[in-house]
Every structure is written in C-alpha cells, then in structure tokens.
Design brief:
With 426 residues, this protein is of the alpha/beta class. It contains 16 helices and 18 strands. The strands form five sheets. Strands 4-11-10-9-12 form a five-stranded mixed β-sheet, with helices on both faces. It has a five-stranded parallel β-sheet with strand order 15-14-13-16-17, with helices on both faces. A three-stranded antiparallel β-sheet has the order 1-2-3.
Amino acid sequence: TAGMSLTEASKHLNAWFGTYRLPYEATVDGDRLRITHEAYGSGQTIHIKSSLDRGMGGTDLAGEMAGESATYAGLDVAGTINGEACIGRGQYLRALQGNESTSGMELAAANIRKFAEAQKKTLSDLPEREMTPGVFLGHRVIPVNSCCCYVPGGNYPLFSTALMLALPARVAGVGRVIAASPVMKGTDRIHPTTVTALDIAGVDEIYAVGGAQAVAAFAWGTEQIPAVDVIVGPGNSYVTEAKRDAEVIAVDLLAQSEHDAQARGILLSTNEELARKVQSAVGDRLAAPQTAESARRAWENNGEILVVESLDEACALSDRYAPEHLELAVADPEELVPKLHNYGALFVGKLSAEVFGDYVAGPNHTLPTLRASRYTGGVWAGTFLKICTRQRMTAEGVRNLAPTAAAMARAEGLHGHAAAAEARLD
C-alpha cells in the first residue's frame, strides 16, 4: 500500500507467509526489507522502500534477489510464448515435449482432476434452516476470485507441481488461476515442460518470476503483476517411515532426500537388525554414481534411523515430527491409522510408495512442511473454496435473542451494539 512503512510491510508479508505456509520471514534491515528463507538462510535483500511509495511497482521489487530474473514477463499460453506464436491452444507447447511426455502428464492430470472433483463433492452449501424459532442460518461454498500457483524451478522442472496446484483450483471454480515460475538459468524463459503442464492444467496467466519477490508481488500486486487472493506452492520435504524391507526403505529414504540438501528422511523401526540393514543399504546406494549429490548431502546432514520399543511409540514419535509424508510399511497398517494424527499424506501398506503420490495417483503432493501438519493438511479443492455463513431473522427470532445480545454487549461496554439489538424490538 502506498505510504506503508517498512515495519508495517514486514508485518503484512509475514502474515501472508504464515497464512499460506510459505517458508520465509521478513525483517527490517535499515532502509531495506530483508526476506529470509527458513531452510536456505538469508543473503537476499529487496530494495522496496521506493517501490512502496509507488505502490510496490516494477523491477525495484525484484531488486537484488540472487540468481533470479528481474523481469516480469506475462505469458499468454493461448497466444504467444516469449514472442513465439502458438498454433492453437497448447499445440506449440506439446510439440516441444513429444507425445510420450505429454500423454504422461495428461494421465496424471486426469487422476488429479478426478480426485479433486470427488473431494469438492464433500463440501456443499448448507441450505437455510431454522435453528431456533425465527432464526434461519445457512452457508454457501464460494470459490476465491484468484490464486497464484507457484511452481519452483530449481535443478529440474517440477511440472508435476504445476498440475497438482492448478487443477484443484480449476475444479474449485477459481475465477483467475495464475502461475509463476522462475526462468531457466541463463535464459528469460520458463522451462517448456513446466509451461506445457500449466497449459494442460488450464491456467489463465503465467509469469516468469521466482523466489521470495514473486510471493511478495502476488501478495500485494505490482504495476506488472496483479495481486491474488490465495498463493499456493510447495516447501521442503521430509519423510517419516515405518518398518519395511531394508532395500526398499533405503530407496524411499534417498528418493525423498534428493529433493534438496535440506530434505529430511527418517526411519522409525521396532527392529534393530532391520535398522542396521537399512543403514548399510543406504550407504551402498550413496556410493552409486547415479545418486544425486543433494541426496547425499541431505542424508549425511539430516537423515535419521531410530529404533523404538513399540509401534505405539513410533506413532507417538511420528505425531511429534508431524511429517509431510508418512509411509506405513508394517504387517497391519490399518491398525496404526487411527493412532496417527499429524501428517500431510499417508501411504498405507508396503506397495503404496510415496512416488506414486508425487506424480500420478491423484491426491495432491503439495503438503504442509515445517511440522505444519499439526494444524493443516495439503492443497485440495477446498483450499480454493470459502465457507460463507448467512443468517435471517424474523420478529420472533429478534424477540428471543435481542435481550440476551443487548445484555452481553453492555457487559463488554459496547452500548452501540446493545442499542442496535434493542432497536429491532420496536
């Protein structure tokens, strides 16, 4: 907002980061606003004082964010991509990818859309009903007007995230579904695979911008970027796992660890012999040349193998960790399900590998990180819907409620409220 102080700006930013579970913190550093990533540390400073005076405008907001483009290039998927004309919607994009890649995305998209539609059906309007004499209450399920789906770039194009974010928004009925993603290093373009996935998901607008400045831009809006109501996107991941075959457990632990060097893979086991076999199997795989360096660093710095006395203890410990992904690879996994309360997504049984959830099964892979599964779940159709209540009073309802409402208002020193209630008694 024009004229907002840096202190006020930092409070507003942190409120947005907290609301949408984004791993950033804004602090005031002299005449600058510093945004720090919880996993990667600081070193990213945005010069936005002059931008705030102009209403958060333009390239000043991009500022000095290391390695990020300072250009906000809006891409119209149906028209042009960085100046290159499309032959009809998506044709140019899909020609870039080839039939095999595109068909895989379309299969995943169909499953994600189908599951989101089933989820949406669990939410419905509550028709007005008379709860007490003369008092009629109800609610409506209303989609938000706009959202931004933030798709990370990183070392690889995370096109699956594009599908996981945009499709539930579309199913929910969001009016404007916008996407943002950082450009490929050394270019001014988003990876074509990501843009293809966004086209399949049916986004309305794509912006080539990444990092914390993208979050700030879509939260507040700039001269080039319109503000949105909801921002969704993934954070860092860690996985907690229960007892399973040692080799398969090692594969799963390292699969999660390769996301980035801050990823955290944890094994909880009641069997010390199995735990030691897993440790050995992980060591063998770390020595293989195809193992990503990020997986090696993540496991060495953050990996854990814990031996517990019982599965009950494992469940209690898992709830304290509040993992993003939780795999149950035990003899009777259904017995443990009622004992578990804090997780982003649950994978039940030895065959239910987390990788299927990452790509094609249907449920969303954008899940709460940083122990946020203690109080929230992952992205779903309901993320983009709001429950808005309504009430309607008759004269009988006013007679029943006004005296109590007025008395409560006066007890709180709000005499105007009391008068508003009593005025309806006339």
